[in-house]
Amino acid sequence: MNGFSVEASRYSGVLAGLATRGFVVASSDYYHNWTSPPPPPFPRLGCPESYVLVTAELLGTLLDFARGSATQDGRFSFLHSADLGRLVLLAHSAGGSVAMCMLSGSCGRDADLSPSMRLGCEGLAALHRRHGSALINGVFNKRTAEKAAATQGACHGYLQFNHMNHFGINDFYPNTHQVTPCASPNPSDDQSFETDAATQRAGLDIIAHTTAAWVRAFNKGDAAALDYLSGLADNPRVSAVKTASGCGFAVNSSSA
Q: What superkingdom does the record give (predicted)?
């Protein structure tokens, strides 16, 4: 689930890393028109005069595609090999907020949701009718801890990275302080942040490897996955890692 106005192509590195680890991967550019004059800096130079945000309704459509019930378009036939009993939502920024609103129940009860969160929650009932449960794994900051704690299902956790900013899950972009071309800089980031292609690729590999290991440890108790997760505390790129007790395994760093 994309960050706000971050196109799917900006996640190619981490998605490729998941695909090579056996995942059936799908991402989408779901564009919406502004209903009022867009706030600065939107639209960015050279970008569409609209914004990207994945909704619960779109996820329901994706599941229909995976079952082959929504389209006969051969481009989606790869989805038919997906195991819909083990659905993983990998979400970033606004997409992560939408995902946790969905899974924590905030979509239906929180009157203070922002307009973008309300839009993201559209179609939630349809999604629940199509699939009864979901596992979310991703990178989120401290401001999302309360939502994570309320997320349906007992297992949740977090990673905190060194040498990454808010766009650390995205491909490398030179001369932009690692802000993707059509998105807005995050005010909590170091606005002079710099990285390089090799450092960014290494970080994306950690995200993909950790996602795969988390799923396999949770679903299968996989010994190799548990070993990898246990070693994250000693990884110089990881400043904190923690799981909740309900995961069936525990991985906690001393700095968490």
A: Eukaryota
What is the residue type of 46?
G
Q: How far apart are CA 17 and CA 90, in angstroms?
A: 13
Q: Are the C-beta atoms of 232 and 241 separated by less than 8 Å?
A: yes
CA distance linking residue 10 with residue 77, whole number of Å: 23
| Helix 223-231 and helix 197-220, axial crossing angle in degrees, nearest 10 | 140
Q: Let me know the angle formed at the C-alpha of 185 by 256 and 148, rounded to the nearest 5 degrees.
A: 35
8 Å CB contact between 226 and 207: no
* Closest to 4 in 3D by CA, of 107, 105, 114, 158: 114
Residue 24: both structure tokens together: 């059936």
Give residue-wise pLDDT tens across range 90-122. Answer: 888 888 888 877 777 778 676 678 888 888 988
The pTM score is 0.86
Angle, in degrees to the nearest 10, between helices 197-220 and 12-19 = 40
